């Protein structure tokens, strides 16, 4: 998608940087009402309204199907198969299930860490990036080092 942006070498990094404060603000707007209106935690744990949530979701336009029975059969079968497979993994070993679910965090962190590490440890690339149109200047090395340490601790 970055190819379709006007002046992507400037606009895309700016969009990435601006997504952090925008995400913070929108996250606070979303979470504050939830935090102040939540009932007692034990009440939530005792009576989670799965049936009501499922009924609301299934009555939405997204839950409808074009066939005469109005049952989204393909979506239901796919969801059931995925849940069955994850349930079988959990029945076999809860450690394996947690490892399977946690691999997403590890892969995401690795996808950030690899280019940062290449940039930090390859002087040739560092010189090319220093003269790029969007540069962090003299702070670039320190920011990348902190980012690499952070991602390493996350993984």
Automatic annotation (TrEMBL):
<dbReference type="InterPro" id="IPR002293">
    <property type="entry name" value="AA/rel_permease1"/>
</dbReference>
<dbReference type="GO" id="GO:0022857">
    <property type="term" value="F:transmembrane transporter activity"/>
</dbReference>
<feature type="transmembrane region" description="Helical">
    <location>
        <begin position="133"/>
        <end position="153"/>
    </location>
</feature>
<feature type="transmembrane region" description="Helical">
    <location>
        <begin position="97"/>
        <end position="121"/>
    </location>
</feature>
<keyword id="KW-0472">Membrane</keyword>
<keyword id="KW-1133">Transmembrane helix</keyword>
<feature type="transmembrane region" description="Helical">
    <location>
        <begin position="71"/>
        <end position="91"/>
    </location>
</feature>
<protein>
    <submittedName>
        <fullName>Uncharacterized protein</fullName>
    </submittedName>
</protein>
<keyword id="KW-0812">Transmembrane</keyword>
<dbReference type="GO" id="GO:0016020">
    <property type="term" value="C:membrane"/>
</dbReference>
<feature type="transmembrane region" description="Helical">
    <location>
        <begin position="15"/>
        <end position="36"/>
    </location>
</feature>
<dbReference type="Pfam" id="PF13520">
    <property type="entry name" value="AA_permease_2"/>
</dbReference>
<keyword id="KW-0813">Transport</keyword>
């Amino acid at each position: 998608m970055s190819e379709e942006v006007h002046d992507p070498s400037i606009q895309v990094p700016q969009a990435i940087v601006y997504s952090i404060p925008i995400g913070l603000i929108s996250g606070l707007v979303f979470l504050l009402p939830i935090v102040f209106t939540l009932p007692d935690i034990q009440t939530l744990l005792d009576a989670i309204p799965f049936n009501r949530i499922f009924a609301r979701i299934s009555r939405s336009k997204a839950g409808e199907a074009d066939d005469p029975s109005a049952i989204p059969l393909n979506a239901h079968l796919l969801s059931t198969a995925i849940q069955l497979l994850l349930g079988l993994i959990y029945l076999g070993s809860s450690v394996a299930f947690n490892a399977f679910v946690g691999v997403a965090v590890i892969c995401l962190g690795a996808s950030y860490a690899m280019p940062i590490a290449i940039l930090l440890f390859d002087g040739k690339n560092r010189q090319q990036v220093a003269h790029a149109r969007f540069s962090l200047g003299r702070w670039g090395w320190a920011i990348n080092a902190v980012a690499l340490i952070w991602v390493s601790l996350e993984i």
